[in-house]
Specification:
EC number: 4.2.1.19
Shape: globular
Protein name: Imidazoleglycerol-phosphate dehydratase
CATH architecture: 2-Layer Sandwich
Largest sheet: 4 strands, mixed
Number of strands: 10
Subcellular location: Cytoplasm
Strand content: 25-35%
Radius of gyration: 16 Å
GO molecular function, one term: imidazoleglycerol-phosphate dehydratase activity
Distance between the termini: 20 Å
Helix content: 25-40%
CATH class: Alpha Beta
CATH superfamily: Imidazole glycerol phosphate dehydratase, domain 1
Organism: Ruminococcus bromii
Number of domains: 1
Length: about 190
Amino acid sequence: MRSAYVERKTKETDIKLKLNLDGGDIKIDTGIGFFDHMLNSFATHGRFGLEVSVKGDLYVDEHHTVEDTGIVLGKAFAEALSTKESIERFGSFYVPMDEALAFASVDISGRPYLVFDADFPQERCGGYDCSMTVEFMRAFAFNAQITLHLKSVYGDNSHHITEALYKACAHALRLAVKQNSSNVLLSTKGVL
């Protein structure tokens, strides 16, 4: 079973997260409606089971809640893929959403890196500051120890741009974690 349960408690957030790379229930409660919607889209399109409960210092703003959720999701992802044998390792995907088009490419490499290229015409989507998208993706990529490239090719609506990025990331990850029958680690170095 490729799954993990991670808890993280700081003075700013208290997070409990369960991830199953092969599917399962989706229950999201971060206290930020739009962020819940993005995580739900991420889980649905990645075909992941994801249960997240976050109590964050939203009286400050949403930064700690969003970034720390990325940290915990990344740690869970790394734990669920403790052995990287028999996975495809790479995945890339385009997602259109009305006028917006987003692209994601991932390498489950053990080398954390993020390239993020997106502009948001509107600063906010409900209670979510769109600038938090890069913070979430950076925290996720570095803690999952993956290389992640995300690009908004174009778009006029920040809701559509943001959602297309989350969905493209999920689809790329779904392809990368897909199991094959090779029992081989896809690396010329012999280690990821």
